[in-house]
Amino acid sequence: MALMMRILVRYYLNEAASLASPGVDELRWLKPVRPGDVLSLRCTVVQARASRSKPDRGLVHTAIEILDQHQETVATLTMMNLLRRRPDPDPAVSGR
Asked: pTM for this structure?
């Protein structure tokens, strides 16, 4: 999990946008990881919504698969992240 978090923070979560993580759900270990294994991640956004109370923030649910060098899934989890949102475009300016 520590390696997964390092990869996730370095390559997936934007420093400027990431505010917090309310938690992790559905963590499953499917296969053992051994010394010498090469791990990678596959991240899929499964849900994203704006905060009702703070419109400058949104909650994103991401399904994460941890893969070994044979592209076999060794673990899965669903992570929630609180991210900063860009302001909605002004309808008068964008012509909507």
From this structure: 0.77
